[in-house]
UniProtKB/TrEMBL annotation, chains A, B:
It comes from the Bacteria. One of its GO terms (molecular function) is DNA binding. Belongs to the RecR family. One of its GO terms (biological process) is DNA repair. A zinc finger (C4-type) spans 56-71. May play a role in DNA repair. It seems to be involved in an RecBC-independent recombinational process of DNA repair. It may act with RecF and RecO. This is Recombination protein RecR. CDD domains: TOPRIM_recR. InterPro entries: DNA_Rcmb_RecR, Rcmb_RecR, Rcmb_RecR_Znf, TOPRIM_dom, TOPRIM_RecR. Keywords: DNA damage, DNA recombination, DNA repair, Metal-binding, Zinc, Zinc-finger. The gene is recR. It comes from Sphingorhabdus contaminans. Residues 79-174 form the Toprim domain.
Amino acid sequence: MASQEIDALAQALSKLPGLGPRSARRVVLHLMKKRETVLRPLLRALEQVEQRLVVCDICGNIDTGNPCGICVDPRRDTRSICVVEDVPDLWALDRSRLFPGKYHILGGRLSALDGVRPEDLNIDGLIARVAAGGVDEVVLAMNATLEGQTTAHYLAERLEEYPVRLTQLAHGVPVGGELDYLDDGTLAQALRARRPVG
Amino acid sequence: MASQEIDALAQALSKLPGLGPRSARRVVLHLMKKRETVLRPLLRALEQVEQRLVVCDICGNIDTGNPCGICVDPRRDTRSICVVEDVPDLWALDRSRLFPGKYHILGGRLSALDGVRPEDLNIDGLIARVAAGGVDEVVLAMNATLEGQTTAHYLAERLEEYPVRLTQLAHGVPVGGELDYLDDGTLAQALRARRPVG
């Protein structure tokens, strides 16, 4: 005789990635037991996200404004656009503070397996930004996976007709990485792209 | 440059059982993308639970009223109390509609490994209910695990001095269970407790 409220919450939770019906019930119980320390903070955080966050119409970033903080920032170089698969990739790249330009979020990667086609991604938006002019460089910063690289190749073809420089992230030994633990593909790329010392 | 709202939500989510920091971020992104179909329903369900559900002071059940619907139900037999480890056990037992009495939720099981001692469970509440009189039977419906059975034995000792009948759930072949797939312990119990046919 679980109450209707509990059933509704368990159902809502079971729609989250990684939570099935059984673990959703476990989460409900945890939330009930830790009402002050877990349920309330989660509720407030969800409210804030629901009320304040919007998707940027220009680049697809998620922020408190539309256009987003990056798109309206006058100090950022509009001539360079870094294309990423999803928002967390933008977060990761921007933490480095090394890229001075703007971003464009595809919202995924091409995948025959998952049935993701070009029209499912925000590719037209990217083409429109490039076609509008004023863009010198497009960084194709997809993941170094098969699907990511397929997506990068597809974008390269679509952007061929525009006078922009296409670049990609360098492959190589990660900082702190031990050679012995690296896969052969990365090692080969690092060797091929070796640079003079000093 | 993830916004503060996203960080706060990811942190709140990472406190749920089964979600680490990385999967919490994945959930945040999913919530952002499915604002209408996932985020809003989850928010409403959490609000309902936060505003409407309370813990019953008598039995520890979670319901919209305190005392809970079962404790105040005049059709239920107050002479019989079924003791369970946690609220989902009550839900599971009550779905059978075969137990006509009241419940008592311990809020866990004794566990040397997890450092759960008798004073961490709602055992005093149970003793007080039995000591108040009017109770004929206490069903010790702990899980059939080592810790569950340890808890049942402890409760049996504590309740020894009161004039109540202590019972436990029958062990045996689950309905629909194939003998070949059952563990030997269950089979032995089922054989020992065999009953005349018809």
